[in-house]
């Protein structure tokens, strides 16, 4: 009967551990990237048994726990509106490095750049690691991405119709010099020679000062190949540069119908100095920097890790894990094997409340039964003492 008390105590201890695991799961139901665990039970060793293999009188010593099993199933994904919140659509983990140089892993994906321009995990403060072309882990930083260098305008493409018999003016044409300075130009088109071929003179000016001029030639109202481009040497900026006025093959010189579009700028290149206005990650895991001049530049690529099994991971807290077996870790980048990166979303906990509440009932029943077992064994021992006392 004393052995029965120890068996019941083993049950109380094991089921209390089970309750602790369930409590941890339930309280972390809203923790981003949290992975639930399940306690594994096992019967303890057996005593007794006869000689010659007679096991008809073996007695168990209770229940024990083997440890917790980590559930790596993905949770749901939630939009956050923060471009640096990331989720991974597969089984990949983000790779972190703490201040001591230790490698950690997380599914939480809540990142931000610190004052030094290094991408950090908001919970633990660990550095988020990227991967270079040689497969080597490296921190993700904004080095070289804080501004976008200017580019001088090289081509201005024009499209539409030139009206025969009167001048045509395009005002406010923006161009950029080598230093990124913006200049607003006025283009004046004059039909100097009519008939076929016809000639249009274009005069380029800024603030009333002529910058340059040239001629376009038309045949049967269409631009003549080789005569459809005018080079302009611009000397009004901090550094001289040249650009070209180019006519689209669709440009026409004729009596313009009322519903035809007048000659205008179709597209042009060049831009000024850009300041960093946005940071995000694309589906391939590359850092994408956006600038005030409309340009985008790709930076370093975020690294992902994949594990052979859940047994290779150990939970640390702060949404991070360490590898129990380094040989079970495989590094890569966003793809079908590791998972696709999604910017502006986080993975929420994979806790299944219905399953947790079902397990909670089982733990409660097991604990109550073990408690009743201890009480019954105690009562039987007390009765035995009473009987011996009366004798």
UniProtKB/TrEMBL annotation:
Q: Which organism is it from?
A: Chitinimonas lacunae
List locations, semicolon-separated. Answer: Bacterial flagellum basal body
Q: Which InterPro entries match?
A: Flag_bb_rod_N, Flagellar_FlgE/F/G, Flg_bb/hook_C_dom, FlgE/F/G-like, LlgE_F_G-like_D1
User: Which residue numbers delimit the Flagellar basal-body/hook protein C-terminal domain?
Assistant: 343-385
Q: Which UniProt keywords apply?
A: Bacterial flagellum, Cell projection, Cilium, Flagellum
Q: What is this protein called?
A: Flagellar hook protein FlgE
Give start and end of each Flagellar basal body rod protein N-terminal domain: 7-35
Using the record, list the residue span of the signal peptide; answer none if the entry has no such feature.
none
**Where's the Flagellar hook protein FlgE/F/G-like D1 domain?**
90-139
The family note in this entry says: Belongs to the flagella basal body rod proteins family.
Report whether Hydrolase shows up as a keyword of the record. Answer: no
Is Oxidoreductase there in the keyword field?
Answer: no
